[in-house]
Amino acid sequence: SKDHAEERFIESFKKYPDNPLKVLFSIYRGNYGKFLLSVFFFFIKHSPVWMSPIILANIINYVTTQDERCVEKITANVILMIFLILLNVPMNYLYVRYKSLAVRYVETGLRGALIKKLQQLSISYFKDVQSGRLQSKIMRDVEAVETLSTQLFVSILNIVLNITVAMAVTVS
C-alpha cells in the first residue's frame, strides 16, 4: 500500500544514514523485476549497434570469397539487420516503460515520505521557513534522486552491456 511504501522509504533513510547507495537500492526494492525487464528490452533495442559490424563483416566476406550462395547469404544478413532495426522502436518503448514505472514509483514514494515527515514537524518550524522554499527544495531533491537513478541505470547498463558484448565477440 501507499502508506507502507512511504514508511519503508523513511526506514531506508534511517537504516542507512551514511550510505546513500544502500538507500538508493533500498528504496527501489520491489522494483527489481521492472529493471530486469528494462535491461532485457534495452539489450534487444541496442542489438543493431552491436550486430551491424558483424553483419557488415559477413557481407564483405561473402562478396570477397565468391561463394555460390553469396546472394542468399547477403540477403539473409540484410534481412536480419532490417529485422533488428524494426525491433528498435517497440523495444525502446518497452525499455522506457519499465524503467519509468520503477522510477515513478520511487518518485511518488519519496514525495509521500517527505510530506509525511513535514506533517510531523512542529508549527514553529513552519514559522521560520517559507513554504515556497520548502516546496522547491522537496521538488529539487526528488528530481535529483530521479536524475541520479536514471543516469546510473542508463550509463552503467550501457557500459556493462557494451563491454560484455565486446568481450563475447572478441572471444568467439
Q: Mean of residue pLDDT?
A: 84
Q: Structural class of the secondary structure composition?
A: mainly alpha
Q: What gyration radius follows from the Cα positions, in whole Å?
A: 24 Å
Helix content: over 70%
- What is the succession of H and E elements? HHHHHH
CA(first)-CA(last) distance: 48 Å
Number of strands: 0
In DSSP terms (H or I, runs of 4 or more residues), the helix count works out at 6
Taking the sheet with the most strands, its summary is: none
What would the principal axes of the Cα set say about the shape?
elongated
β-strand amount: under 5%
Give an overview of the whole structure.
This protein is 89% helix and 0% strand. The longest helix is centred in the middle third of the chain and has 50 residues, at 70-119. The relative contact order is 0.12. The model has no long low-confidence stretch (mean pLDDT 84). Helix 1 runs antiparallel to helix 2 (20-27), helix 3 (32-65) packs antiparallel against helix 4 and helix 4 (70-119) runs antiparallel to helix 6 (131-171). With 172 residues, it is mainly α.
Question: What is the topology?
Answer:
Blueprint: H1 2-15, H2 20-27, H3 32-65, H4 70-119, H5 123-128, H6 131-171
Helix pairs in contact: 1-2, 1-4, 3-4, 4-6
Describe the structure in brief.
This protein has 172 residues and is mostly helical.
Supply the key terms.
single chain, 89% helix, 6 helices, mainly alpha
